[in-house]
Amino acid sequence: MVLSLIVVVDENNGIGINGTQPAYIRDDLKRFKELTVGNTIVMGRKTFQALPKGALPNRRNVVLTRQQHFIADKCEIIHSPDELYNLCAPEEKVFVIGGGDIYRLFLSKANYIYLTLIHYRFEEIDTWFPKISEELWRIEIREGPFTDVKSGFSYSYINYIRR
Ligand SMILES: NC(=O)c1ccc[n+]([C@@H]2O[C@H](COP(=O)([O-])OP(=O)(O)OC[C@H]3O[C@@H](n4cnc5c(N)ncnc54)[C@H](OP(=O)(O)O)[C@@H]3O)[C@@H](O)[C@H]2O)c1
């Protein structure tokens, strides 16, 4: 499989506050959809349970949990990161969509990182993305900064590829 991490971070690598994301940017959500539709998404049980309408449509949804009897509508459940490799075909595009635990589990295995950087430092962050090592990753494309009209936040897209 081709494994990518897709994430929104702030200037401190912050990704979560009290079970939710620090900010939602309209064009970024559109981009998330364009990248992931038709492909596979993998998420932690907590991120799954925070989705307002459950499994995301038109994607293969995979949820990672340690709970042996956990079930979720329109989702496949796995209990260890390694199970993903048995589940997915060699050419399958798989996007790890969070949260913090799950990014940490898959960073060393990923081929790409699609990072949206919000140029802001949020207070109250309680979940972080792991540090991206410059020795292991190089920036393939950097776009922006753009401004989100609704929130006023400035943000950039940074695509990393493993060296
Ligand atoms: N900014 C972004 O792009 C972004 C994206 C997604 C999420 N987030 C934010 O991230 C936060 C949630 O992150 P989180 O780290 O608290 O939770 P999470 O990664 O979404 O889920 C954690 C859960 O995954 C399961 N898990 C973790 N490691 C496992 C392993 N080795 N084997 C099997 N199952 C495992 C456990 O589920 P069980 O407890 O059921 O065993 C654990 O409680 C929220 O604030 C959310 O809004 C941000």
UniProtKB/TrEMBL annotation:
Domain of life: Bacteria
Keyword flag Aminoacyl-tRNA synthetase: no
Catalytic reaction(s) noted: (6S)-5,6,7,8-tetrahydrofolate + NADP(+) = 7,8-dihydrofolate + NADPH + H(+)
Record InterPro entries: DHFR, DHFR-like_dom_sf, DHFR_dom
Keyword set, alphabetical order: NADP, One-carbon metabolism, Oxidoreductase
SUPFAM superfamilies: Dihydrofolate reductase-like
GO biological process: dihydrofolate metabolic process; folic acid metabolic process; one-carbon metabolic process; tetrahydrofolate biosynthetic process
Family statement: Belongs to the dihydrofolate reductase family.
Name of the protein in its database record: Dihydrofolate reductase
Organism: Thermophagus xiamenensis
